[in-house]
Amino acid sequence: MADGVTLADLPPLREVIARHGLNAKKTLGQNFLTDTNLLDRIARIPGLGPDSRVYEVGPGPGGLTRALLRAGATVVAVERDDRALPALAELAAAAGGRLRVVGDDAMAVDARALAGTGAHIVANLPYNIGTALFTDWLDGAEWPPWWASLTLMFQKEVAQRITASPGNAAYGRLAVLAQWRSVPKIALHVPARAFVPAPKVDSAVVHLVPATPLAPAHPARLAALTAAAFGQRRKMLRASLKSLPGALEAMEAEGIKAEARAETVPVEAFAKAAARLG
Q1: Residue whose C-alpha is closest to residue 28's, from 60, 67, 71, 3
Q2: How would you label 201-233 residue by residue, b for 16+ Cβ within 10 Å and e otherwise?
Q3: Tell me, what's the pLDDT at 2?
Q4: What are the DSSP calls for 212-235, one per residue?
Q5: How far is CA 23 from CA 68, 79, 81, 263, in A?
Q6: 26 vs 195: CA distance, rounded Å
Q7: What is the reported pLDDT for 196?
Q8: Spans in the chain with pLDDT lower than 50
Q9: Phi-psi category of 28—alpha, beta or left, where left has phi over 0 and alpha has psi -120 to 50?
Q10: What is each CA distance from 107 to 32, 85, 274, in whole angstroms?
């Protein structure tokens, strides 16, 4: 690509995908978005501006990356798929110094060191590592966290699990961990047909901002408590919490009966019970 090319000069994303042979790989959990209007809508969700910094995971051919750059942000993008790096290099050359591409595994890098404190995390997450990355960003002992917000594409079912309320069939560990000290919401629904190739399920974008914790629990203790409670979600807490010493007593101290099931317990009660565990 010739020198002096700007973002406006770049060819359509579908052309880039074809030219670089970027067929989406199931093994990497890839599904590409190419609709410019939809990508711009996603980029607008976190309220980016000229001073914003963004950390992006799995940019693929760079569709969302382009939208983030159009929104004025400076972007650090981590891409594991070597096939995508030439296309991303072309995008970086047109971005005027506002895009840094890191060819590495997002599960192995230090995101904070790459993007810096105060960065927004925005990503169409690869399906196979999305939940693992999400919980990793949530479980830091330091709070408020290093990131300013999360704007993440998930399978619709996962998005519903993150935002579910007690008593809802989708309510579980992800909801408790997310809602304990942040405010998540589904910001945008994305039909399967919007992707190339189209997956079997619809997706949704979850936007999450940090909040004051509902109780000063340690993340590891809350994780252990919810793992035990929801590990056997059909059972009463009396049975499901047997494996975690002191857990049932902590729950009862918060007014939760031993006969209750995990899916009925409010997030705040889980957090306060976890705080009692030490």
Answers
A1: 60
A2: ebbbbbbbbbeebbbebebebbbbbbebbbebe
A3: 47
A4: --SS---HHHHHHHHHHHHHTTTS
A5: 23, 15, 11, 40
A6: 13
A7: 79
A8: 1-2
A9: alpha
A10: 20, 18, 27
- Characterize 234-257 residue by residue with b for buried, 16 or more Cβ atoms within 10 angstroms of its Cβ, and e for exposed: eeebeebbeebeebbebbeebebe
Give the domain 7-210 fold: Rossmann fold (3.40.50)
- The domain spans of the chain are 7-210, 219-276
Which H or E run contains 121? strand 120-124
**Residues 99 and 91 sit within 8 Å (Cβ to Cβ):** yes
Provide the H-helix boundaries in the chain: 13-19, 36-44, 63-70, 85-94, 111-115, 130-138, 156-163, 173-179, 219-231, 237-240, 247-253, 267-276
- The CA dihedral of 187, 184, 141, 106, to the nearest 10 degrees, is -30
35 contacts: CB under 8 Å, gap ≥ 6:
194
Write the DSSP symbol of residue 116: -
Give the separation between CA 278 and CA 273, rounded to whole angstroms: 9
Q: Which residues have a Cβ under 8 Å from the Cβ of 107 and sit 6 or more positions away? A: 129, 132, 133
| Second CATH level (architecture) for the domain 219-276 | Orthogonal Bundle (1.10)
